[in-house]
Predict the structure.
Amino acid sequence: MAASYGGIATYTRHLLAGWADRFPEDELHVVLPTGADWWPLPAGAVRHDVHLAGPETLTRPLAMSVQLPRLVRRVNADAVLAVNPATTLRRLPVPLGVVVHDLRHELRPEQFPPARRAVRTVAYRWGLRVADVVIAVSQRTLDDVRARCGPRAANKGLAVHEGADHVDGWARAEPNGTAIASCHHSNKDVGQLIDAWALLDADAPPLALLGLGGERAESARAHIARAGLTGRVSVSPYLPDTEYERLVTGARLVVFVSDFEGFGLPIVESMRLRIPVVIGPEPACLEVAGGHAAITAGDGPAALATAVRQALEMDGAQREAAGQHADGFTWGATAAGVRAALLDRR
């Protein structure tokens, strides 16, 4: 059961590709809303359209609850995998696995508009209720599920890391000497990034703040001007995939400082590309970085500026060690973990 946007879509797309490569004997069936053309399915996957008579967020669970049991019987399915919030309201006659990325809507509710928070809360809680196995993308997320959702969810949960080997197919760009920071969610402190760059020497790499639009972009530009960093710090909206990949593969540094993450995919993507990474002491980021990133020693611009300097001083051996760590994060391994968890419930 596929998903359309953000990290959830990235996970679904690459998991399917990794599954098809690792287990070519498996028959994959993918459920999509009628007319959806989000990304290419792997060769051999069978597509099934579900008609949604209204907004996807509201009508999809009802449509899935009616049509999914029929599809399961028709294709004689062995298991079903749902990527929250694309879930069903009914239990199924075969094992149902539900992937949970994070519980940020519960643990950082102020970062969500009320309507979106309410939809996520209902979808996630119901998904955990009907699931036979809960697949968390990190130990951090699994710990949150256990703490927030009770022993029933805890007893059917396990952590299976995401992959990062999709970056192997990215076109490599010439080095551009830029530091990259993704700021598309409110769990990224844009102001702290700008203030940290004001503390760095003028020969520090220019900083590109990505994923900013609307009021957040205007506020960032005003902050940059006040700090005297015009020309050293830039603001960009969401970029097309090819442009984003070209910018990242040529980057000198990636800054991924967040107050909450479920996994932190840009960390392992960057390490796999042998690019130094700066992170904060956030549990999921520490988990996936495995000690190979520069870590801020506390909050505030000064601590971030110090970590940036440390990352810029990483030598080739340190970058290679980080890369070898990230080389272990593959979508084939993710598929193997998810598949084993589903089949274990049969």
The mean pLDDT is 90.
